[in-house]
Amino acid sequence: MAIDSHMHVNSLVVDDKEKVIERINLNGEIEKVLNVGLDRETSLESVGIALSNHKFYSAIGVHPLYVKNQNFEWMENLASSEKVVAIGEIGLDYYNRDYDKQRMIFIRQIMLANELQLPVIIHANNTNYDIVEIFERYVKPKYGCVFHCFQPDVEILKYLIDNGYYISFAGRITYKNACKSLEIAKLVPNDLFLVETDSPYITPEPFRGEINKVEYLRYIIKKIAEIKEMTYKEVEDYSTRNAKRLFKKMN
After folding, report:
1. What is the pTM for the complete model shown?
2. pLDDT tens across 172-186, in order?
3. CATH annotation of 2-250
């Protein structure tokens, strides 16, 4: 069975949340899901869902687009939960202009993850190089790292591979214009990739334009298998083992 390494059931606004949770719990293709927080409120909700549902695990953190009026007092206590497996999603996104605050909060969250011995989930919206600069100048994740929904860049991929960091493929790899992502999929080692839906966002073909569902993870796995000339089961097995290696509390 597969692991959806990044999704947001707490941010679904169209479908009924309880029905989504029930559907995932009953899905025979999905072993586990990682429900990712964006701020204090969604992180608290994510942990609550995880504690009540055996397939669900939680990541907690402050997303770069939600840094306004956020503090950190809540994170250390919440991270003590047995179902919190990572700090995330954290990173940089220059869609908003609060660059300095984003960088400061990003650095502090990496430091906290290192103190808690947890991996980090990176959000990088056209900021791959800025994030690597922070890693090299200030602080690097000590307990693992994944660039979620990786924006393809061969040079950054080499850096991630050299550091034993992971990349995660989402629905964009199924799009017709995803040539760079296809190149990355061929190059990434089999022990350093994850799969995710980022549900309810980034819906894969053939459902592009609709609300994304965890069930659509199969289309991402199928596409990677095609690119890497592997079987569906091989991709499923590699990505599941990789997720458990990175998110050790999932084992």
Report:
1. 0.96
2. 999 999 999 999 999
3. 3.20.20.140
Label residues 207-217 b or e (16+ Cβ within 10 Å = b): eeeeebbbbbb
For residues 72 and 118, the model is more confident at 118
Measured in degrees and rounded to the nearest 5, phi and psi for residue 5 equal -85, 0
Provide the CB-side half-sphere exposure for 76 (13 A, CA). 9
Domain ranges of the chain: 2-250
Strands 84-93 and 56-60: parallel
Query: Who contacts 251 (Cβ-Cβ below 8 Å, separation ≥6)?
Result: 244
If you ran DSSP here, which 8-state letter would residue 79 be given? Answer: T
How would DSSP label each residue in 85-132?
EEEEEEEEETTSS-HHHHHHHHHHHHHHHHHHT--EEEEEES-HHHHH
